[in-house]
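Continuing from the previous page of notes. For each protein in this section, the sequence appears first, followed by its structure tokens. Read the first protein now.
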Amino acid sequence: MEWLNYHHLYYFWMTVREGSITRAAARLRLSQPTISGQIKALEGALGDTLLVREGRGLRPTVTGDLVFRYADEIFGLGRELLDAVHHRGARSGRLVVGIADVLPKILSRRLLTPVLASDATIHLVCREDKHERLLAELAIHTVDLVLSDAPIDRNANVRAYNHLLGECGVSIMASPSLGLRARDFPRCLDDAPFLLPGEGTALRRSLDVWLEGAGLRPQIVAICDDSALLKAFGEAGVGAFAVPSAVATEIGRAYGVRVLGKVDSVRERVYAITTERRIRHPAVATIAAAAKTHVLR
């Protein structure tokens, strides 16, 4: 069995973080040749180049970027291990949650806050990514739970189960600077600038159907996979956008936007996707219970 030299990996990781061997050597209080030699040994063991010169610094190659991401996870777990041993009983439980990037951050926070409030031992790790990539992470058990606006497809090559946490209608919101009037909703959206979520998302499909059925032809000025970027554009008056009605009030306060109208026929659903047919993990059960009683109402 091949064994990885974690000293070599650590020196590489520090070099990428610091941006140069010089800064890494100063941080580690080692000589530059020592750091260079350790990285060369790691490249030899892995059979590929990890760093290339860029200006006065270094940048990771494609392989180097992959190795760095794994190293970041490895040494992050190391810090958690020390914390768990030195402060036994505090933050000893670990819950890794994958969050689909289409979900509004405010909604994600509302879903997860009850876990932190109910169990002081939980160490919460949140990872945001695309729905499909998070399911791949779930399949290899690097995340415990995926929160998404869409269920896992029955044809997906992942053994997992959908748990519907709740649903609500959507509200169309816009900055006052756009001059769109709520009393003219939904006709005020015709030919108005509009922001759409990314293609392939459940909300995008529902909005497309609603706009078509209502005979509305807004000007699509941007399509954003990331929900935070979409709302940032909305805050700047770039276009109107849709949010779950359950968090419209908070989004209005946070971004200085207002509700033009509600569309109850477009449903925003939130699923917890786990490898358990029945939820047994206490923290996941807390999330599900809170979502069904007040988070999505």
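Done with the first. The second protein uses the same format. Note its length before scrolling.
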Amino acid sequence: MSSDVIIAGGGVIGLGIAWRSAQRGVRVTVVDPSPGTAATWTAAGMLTPATELHYGEQPLLMLGLESARRYPDFVAELEDAAGATVGYRRDGTIVSAWDTADLAGLRDLQEFGRTLGLTTELLTGRELRQLEPALASGLPGGLHAADDGQVDTRRLRDALLTAIERAGGHVVRHHVRSVRVEGDRVRGVTLGPGEELDADTVVVAAGAWSGQIVGVPAEAVPVHPVKGQTLRLHLPDGAPLQRVVRGVVRGSPVYLIPRASGEIVVGASSEDAGFDVTPRAGAIYELLRDAQALVPVLGEAIFDEVSTSLRPGSPDNAPLIGPTTIDGLIVATGHYRNGILLAPVTADGVAELLAGGALPEGLLPFTPSRFATEGARP
């Protein structure tokens, strides 16, 4: 099979790039043994740039805000192309303080966000309960980001696969073992069984596994796996929340995402455990404990599922997007906790590059060259 572009990895990033590229007439093939069933499948789907703000990550915040701005059009176009909905909602997010010290920290974060142009509202405990009556009594207050949203990641994955096929793209259900390079130029990939696929351009979008692909320069994919677990619950009478709720309960972060179906996604643990994706009982217990501390009625919820996967972390928690030192080799990985949020801006930018343009200016701070060192992966 010959393609213009081979994309190694079928998570939301790889699938998004494939769809946007196929729309532009690029012959694209996605290679993944089970597309969208790793980090994308486990991800909760929060679109919360305002409440993901961390000191020192201002460029990443700006990228997240730009991607969130694109989401409505991205979703509308995708749903039309796939003939299916993806559960996109823009109901806002509440960050609940656990105690007065937490509330003071939220107040400082709000002030910092204001200097960056963010609009959020600080709430009293009473105002918090007026917005979300199911929250525990006694919480001192919180922060409300009205423009934040969510998307159902599993529906998003299904819609992208359908849209890629309808746009003329292909999906090969194998894993990429290596990138084939002749001289200083990409010529395609070798699959796990040994079969070769030809293309003049390869995009590495294999998430936490990007660094396992032979032939990719080590400095282009300095990603490491960060294990995370999410839980899925439901109450017979429907979800008790109207919007995403986040909080830190006695030092442990937790979030709850209500779906229109009545499902509640609870996440997410964070562990350095290599490539182990075995569910850990302690992490499940901690998530359930902290979720119930914020929303007591969840003690009556029915437990449906635990899902475990690996986020692709990077040295600065920001993605790696753009060309490498090898002609024809592009990376789009390292999105860490922001892969779902950054899918539209990443897909648009890389697709523009693949169609013969240049990487958009907004993505230039995130090229892999910022970690350039000597040497390549053997």
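What the second structure shows: The radius of gyration is 21 Å. The longest strand covers residues 302-313. We return to this in next week's lecture.
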